[in-house]
Amino acid sequence: MERRKVTVQTIMSMKGKQRIAMITAYDYPTARLVDQAGVDGILVGDSLGMTVLGFENTLRVTLRDMLIHVAAVARAKPKALLIADMPFMTYETGVRDALKNASKLIRAGAEAVKPEGGQEIFDVVNNLVKFGIPVMGHIGLNPQRVLSLGGFRMIGRTEEQAKKLIEDAKALQEAGAFAIVIEMVPASVAKAVTESIKIPTICIGAGPHCDGQILVIHDVLGLTERPPSFAKKYVDLASIIRDAVAKYVSEVRNGEFPSAEYYKDIKS
Ligand code: KIV
Questions:
Q1: Domain 8-235 top-level CATH class
Q2: How confident is the model at residue 2, as a pLDDT?
Q3: Which residues make up each annotated binding site for Mg(2+)?
């Protein structure tokens, strides 16, 4: 049976009924595969700065980078909901910039956008939603604030921080967000946030009590050099790729490749 297209409404209706599984993807072939595997949402994350472009954090990812990767993923025509990250300083500078930049991501094929932050981006989220652009929030560790945080740290250990996370989640819900990513927060705090709002929460490094989970595809496939401790590696693709390419190199060097079957169609 053909899978039905996942919409923002589908994701919202899943809260309390079915756990939501999301994953990142940054290119056409990976998007096809994760979609065939049945994920509910594909995030073209600005984590592509680290996973694909080799930067140390997400701060140097530009809107142009995002547009190229969103368009590639959109060409896979996924049934999963396609969400695009809004990169650093493409929404913080005001509602007008946020609308202009989010609309470019939508025209490239995104079906929703994800800026980082809580109460401080209420107006941005509210206006995007008001003008037809669905928004997924992102609270807890906001990697775009890595410099002021002094590193990728867990957020919400103090009572004050935990209270702020709940306030942030409520503000995003009120602004019109359809779901919220909670990153690197103690499990008990993520649970309290999840229970305090009506929209789904999607955890990464925040325990099992959210309405869904999201992971970075490179961590799942074993392609990350130093993966975070909360990410499960489902396959060691790095070894598989290294072994396959080493075999190819060896066969080229010893003349085993190409054997006759690989040049039978090539006329001399
Ligand atoms: O950029 C990204 O991949 C993300 C996920 C970690 C949620 O924001």
A1: alpha beta
A2: 86
A3: 46, 85, 116
